[in-house]
Amino acid sequence: MQAFKKITATVAPLDRANVDTDAIIPKQFLKSIRRAGFGPYLFDEWRYQDVGEPEMDCTNRPLNKDFVLNNPDYKGAEILLTRENFGCGSSREHAPWALEDYGFRAIIAPSFADIFYNNCFKNGLLPIVLPAEVVDGLFKEVTAGYQLTIDLEAQTIITPKGKVIGFEVDESRKYRLYNGLDDIALSLLQADKIKAYEAERAKRAPWLFA
Amino acid sequence: MSAKTLYDKLWDDHVVHTEEDGSALIYIDRQLIHEVTSPQAFESLRLAGRAPWRTERNLAVADHNVPTTDRSAGIADPVSRLQVETLDKNCAEFGITEFGMTDLRQGIVHVVGPEQGATLPGMTVVCGDSHTSTHGASGALAFGIGTSEVEHALATQCLIQKKSKNFLIKVNGQASAGVTAKDIVLAIIGEIGTAGGNGYAIEFAGSAITDLSMEGRMTVCNMAIEAGARAGLIAVDDVTIDYYRDRPYSPKGEHWFMAERMWQKLHSDLDAIFDKVVEIDATIIKPQVTWGTSPEMVVPIDAEVPNPVDEFDAVKQQSMRNALDYMGLQAGQAITDIQIDKVFIGSCTNSRIEDMRAAAVMVEGKKIAANIKLALVVPGSGLVKQQAEQEGLDKIFISAGFEWREPGCSMCLAMNADKLTAGERCASTSNRNFEGRQGYGGRTHLVSPAMAAAAAIAGHFVDIRDWR
Lengths: 210, 468
Ligand code: SF4
Hints:
With 210 residues, chain A is α/β, with parallel strands linked by helices. Chain A contains eight helices and seven strands, in the order E-H-H-E-H-E-H-E-H-E-E-E-H-H-H. Chain A is globular and about 65 Å long. Chain A starts with 5 loop residues before the first strand and ends in a 6-residue tail after the last helix. Helix content of chain B is 31%, strand content 17%. Classes of the chains: A alpha/beta (210), B alpha/beta (468). Iron/sulfur cluster (SF4) binds at residues 63-64, 108, 110, 129, 131, 347-348, 409, 412-413, 430-431 of chain B. Residues 63-64, 108, 110, 129, 131, 347-348, 409, 412-413, 430-431 of chain B line the site of iron/sulfur cluster.
């Protein structure tokens, strides 16, 4: 997993609430058995005028000019600014895979759906929750080429005018993301505790171990 | 000892290790696996040279991509076929039990789990699927996970989790005739919103909930995720225990009696404290129909399509406009005037035997309306299908003009051949009405099985309280 330390990048404003995982990556792309290559199909139904199919070459597909990611003003954006309850719907990790594969590193919203929020951290993506009024303020400021600096260690966002906005993140999530660590290897360090738990539980609930 | 909620009890019972910041390694009793969210997990496991921690705690079934028509020729779509074959191959390689496509026990993972007794009260249950919340109906802590976590649970039999907050939703009183578990949960989502449960585990309680059968309770917990909660829970009572007696994977002999004693404690203590409580009066709930592209965009059957100008919040108002536009509806239109093209009875929300019966009652001796292009009934598992056929329900549906299909997810998310085409309108018993969910440009209205069946006969939505 890619570590997240500090980035300065362009912001793409996606002014919609309740953006669901079906919109982030439509289900036909979930048939892939691979982890990479979802970026060209990110927001497929909003981004293109035709119907996307897995493995399709996207270079010549008709674009929906009104969609924010097709606007040259936000080219190369690595930060997505959006509204409440982003990532609601299914548990598909294909959603953060697609965002990451497209090039996004961080998402700023007033709230996220729980599973999606959790999945982001496993894929080098930083979801940042800010109060709705602060998000609203950012939406008002964003123009062509608008950039923010996000510093995970300091837990701050710095606007072009130099305003500093703090954000919250759990210590253990921050530690793993900052260092790009593999969760499984860390959990397996507790192997003895897992075995001790199983031995004790087997006495109370033997049917689970029969 | 301080009073605990059901969620607190289940959580405490599964903590293996706690980190300083409060996140914990919790033990997973059962993992269910399907073909869509597992290939990358198995692949990473293989690349890392890791083996499953406890192979027998995993159970796999292909459901999302399987055809619901004759299966003897296999899967026509090569991409779908590869995904299902990949699951077969991975399960064979790692020694995981799988109900293959031709197994009578095959079906939607959330129907199969409880039906087999593979998910039981008191367990922690996970699956790479958000509707894993369904299994909480039996007093289990069950929640959906992403693919990295599927791999984590395979490799360690544990997951790193942060404890959620406690939310109690009490549905008091008795629901009127024609008002089902589906209407109750849609009304709840209409009340608290799709983000209302974010960060919480929701316990559903109150007489309208305890009056429900296990099937109905599963319908309610299934949609907890649509209210933003990863887990939905219902306390164990006699209904729960009776349901699990003699299921294939249920404890046997002396173990059954031990289990029963343990399960009877799976309820919130009387003086337990919840972070949030909402009370809902069941007596005023009417049959529900969604009109928009989010499950919270829901109204009673006798209402009209709402008008965005009545909404004060600018962001919500814009969402409503987008939804009306996508759905091809006008504000002020009566819900009962909405004509439909297709009907789908199925999905992990409403494909159990009780749902089949409720729909069959509505259509017996009748015919679907001329404007209905397709009416599908897709049972949740091979065993549900068999039971329904023994009761003659298949004949009732077929003679009314419905198609009677093989079990799977089908038109709930349209990953197989069953889908809506652009602009088509569907009365669906599934759980999500997002844009494109049932096919590109398709328009979904979520309803109960009885409401969907009645709509198929009438050709538009009808108030089933006045049916016949
Ligand atoms: S029936 Fe629908 S919601 Fe349920 S598991 Fe299948 S696709 Fe998901």
